[in-house]
């Protein structure tokens, strides 16, 4: 058995196992460093769904998954788990060896288990919050997907886009078409997943190849932003879209990685014996390092502008990510 990934009931036509859209029933579970989680967390804030969907954000990564530490507790007081893996182990349908990834959405109304995992794919959650949850969104919530977007068409388009092998040079044509699904898949294939390889792979060859993809994708995004900047501040010019949410969420992780690298390089060079003084020196040096996206000025501008808006990046997230 595997923990299911359900979709919201507004998608009746899909025939998928569905869950109802109800305010106050679900909790989004994230890890602060995870860019896939960040997509959903940003959408929740932008759409004004904070009161409708509660949040448990793990601030730390540990040996047993992401840890819910705080000044007061070393567990999550609502879910009553120490880590995200513990939450998975408590699920009746989870078996050892199966995925323990975040983000997840838990149903707190299910009496059989405190926090039953009902959804665990960031792309689906982003789409569902933006579409199926429309009635509960703030009145001035932005429209992240085009009017009339529905899960049935979306799932078909996602399956189709998944089977394609996008190149960085496809971006101008995809941007012209402005399909959220294809732009999202282009980004996942060329930047989001390769960036995961850069961070986590032990294979140097695979890492180098992934790094090349990330740089090519950043170059293509830079060129694109330079072209649309006359029309407005967003990736599609005038209007914010789900594409911005995906891209910004990963730019934050890129910036956090850059900041960690700058710090550890400085620490290796820090003079003296006193650990505290060496760390303080490294912190000062790292703060003087060039901005993470300084090679891509339009992208840097785009990132800095959104990072200053707490709906896109909260003060708590900035502090935890050393940004
Ligand atoms: N398919 C997932 C991928 C999410 C993902 O890769 N999450 C990572 C953190 S960034 C994770 O939870 N890794 C730990 C694990 O799988 O146990 C999604 O997009 O929702």
From TrEMBL:
Gene Ontology CC entries for this record: cytoplasm
Signal peptide interval: none
PROSITE patterns listed in its UniProt record: GST_CTER
Superkingdom field: Bacteria
Alphabetized GO MF terms: glutathione transferase activity
Residues covered by the GST C-terminal domain: 173-323
InterPro entries linked to this entry: Glutathione-S-Trfase_C-like, Glutathione-S-Trfase_C_sf, Glutathione_S-Trfase_N, GST_Omega/GSH, Thioredoxin-like_sf
Entry protein name: GST C-terminal domain-containing protein
Originating species: Boudabousia tangfeifanii
